[in-house]
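Aggregate trends can hide what the representation actually does to any particular protein. In the encoding step, the backbone of a single protein was reduced to a row of integers, each denoting a local shape. The record that follows shows the chain in one-letter code together with its fold in token form.

***
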Amino acid sequence: MRLPVKILRSLVAATALLAITGSALAQTIKQPGLTLEAKAWDNIRIQDDSGKTLLTLTGLDLKPAPRAKTTGGVVTQTTSPDGYPALAIDYTLAASDDAVTTAKLTGYFTLKPGLVDVTWTLAGLPDDANLGLSMFGRRLAAGATSLPIEKTGIWKRHAHGGQPQEHPDGKFARYQVDDKIVALAFGSENKVNLDWKDGARHHISFVKSPDQPGTQTAAFSIILTPADWPLELVSARWHGRPVGLKITTPKLYNWWESRENQPAGQQPELTLDAVLANTADAARTVTLNHWIRDFAGNHVSREARDIELAPGQRLDETIRFRPSADSVDPSREIFFAEVSATDKATGEELAFARTNLTLLPPHDFKGTSTESLFGIAAYWPFPDEASVQRVMERMGVRWYRQGNTHNYKNITAIRHTQIPRKRHDEDPVAGDKWVREQLQLCVDHANPAWEFGNEINYAVMSIGMGDTVKDQERVKRIDRYLGWVRAIRRIQQEMGPPAADVKLLSVGLAGMDVKFADGIHDAGGWKLLDGLALHPGRGNFTPDYPVSEPWQNWKSGAYGNYWNYYGSVRTAANLVKKYGDTPDKPKELWLTEVYACAYPNSFWEDSLRHGAENAILSFGLAMSENVKALMWYQLFDSVHYDKLGVNPKDREYYFGLINRDLSFKPALLAYATAAEELDQAKFVRWLHFPESGESKTRGLLFDTPRGPMTILWDRTDGYVLTEKVKDFASPEPWIDSWRSRIPTLLPVAPGQASVTTVNPIGQRQNVAATTTARGTEVTLKLTGAPVIVYGLDAKRLP
């Protein structure tokens, strides 16, 4: 039977235009492996090729201004500008509280192979519209499991041959449904809060249109992949790149425990796993390259071979290697690895990735926090608290700037807070209540000290020595600060022990701001404090800069440079002496933020290799000035508001000892080395090479349970690590950039035929001595990199 033309036209219209206010025919569009079905305006289903619904999109809740919800809509089947099938929805909005809104909301859902692009556009908004709290509705399939939020980066070469960096590539909320992963993919610039969600809704971020006033858009993609696809492969498919690449290892932190004092062949075999996939629709032949170097630059593995990949094909590659036979100490080694894929036909590099792998033997530290200055200023529990504490235990960490001492085996935590915004005298009752709460937390958490305040002397970047804020503002800040300090001391007396026994440290000073410290002293604040907390920031100088004759009288502010390390520490130590001690309670010097920022391709920051060298010197110099604790800032790269995030333009993302992918930097090995060699050590004196001051050789002498130990280095190449030049390029970490190697004759202890040297990452090497008429001696070639030496005759050292 033939239908009348009028009825036939009505059926055709029903499949092209779906009125959502009542029941109607579903609209369905398909791509290989994925189906998008609109049952209703608030029932948009994403299905796999078996017909199972994995995710359903419902409506939107717009807020805070204007505040409105979707209550209906019309679905239209259409085609995207690039030729893909799509669904468009014109929504009906209902404003809350009977408010009138003229805004018009449309949704656009484009179906592509393996993914759906979702865009919502809101037009007709007032200029002051704020949609920052908006949520979109979504329902997950029954049994869906939420996976950790992740942020991806894509490695890019430096334009001038410097350190490659990761650049933002996206952030993902992921769910596993059976053997598939459903990923909500947001652009790296998207301000979406991935943690803000519940069982029915997820945060969405709208962005103002730059060329359409009153218009804002929100966009993301829904990607369906096999459960075994790493996120880097998913991101490559999403961005339309032909190849995805992920490298990892089977070990957490890429850390293998080595066998101390054993040759390379007896060390564990390390493995680097590479996952490569053709994320395009056509077959492709690629050249898979890899190289792995050690700290000295030796190649321990390298290969290039051609591979043909079918569309969507995944390749798993395992690279196995051991330390080089040329390694000076194969039990302590850091390896730098790169894997890349190049198009065989064109020679174009399609993808590359880097990581570090580490060999480090177990170590049993003897010193407690009362004997050690080794601390950490900040960390996050990645991947979990137990794993991080295992790393810190191996590093020799004994102090933590903010935490509960009861949560650690060998770490003593102190308390650190900001200063309340209001002056204490604005609301004394509330202020006293807050102080009591903080002191009680100190007691409950076994915090022996409280660092109250953080860098309130810091104002602008263009500062001079000790002049970070102008005089009037300085007085104002100090007065507000001391109002709280006096309240703390009063309440400590009222509470009595153990609250009264908590040491009160000064506000953590940004650099050694002498004027600010003098201001605290002159206002009567010094007598109220138990110690000085300092953040001795450092620029492109060696840690011992600007000290040329450290055994002579020190003058603060030498050379007029503010951001230097030892100059700040030495100045602070002298100020503590100048201001004087409280009877029976000596004032202490705490360094609560010390760092070796390794921001790539910036002359002002350390290279990865210099960061390791400077960690050794930072700890040794701090011990020479009787520093109570040195808190290294910080354990992980990135920042607290974007944990494990990617930002190649912000130095704040590069202060960690551990990379974003949880692999160790050379500086972490240096931290562990310093902690081992200075374990239960006592500083004896500076060495004089010679006393005339003409020599550029420097040295510190320590007494340790393992015998006399020295840290030696030479400053023939100067104190400035890098010069400011256009297009600065950081050297690779296996490149030793010190130009001069200065032969230095040193006396060897009686009965010893050799000395033991330890480099910044802890590699030990025996150096044979010679006997002369003067006695047993050894010649070491010193550079700007510190070397730790055992076996010298302390009595005959200069």
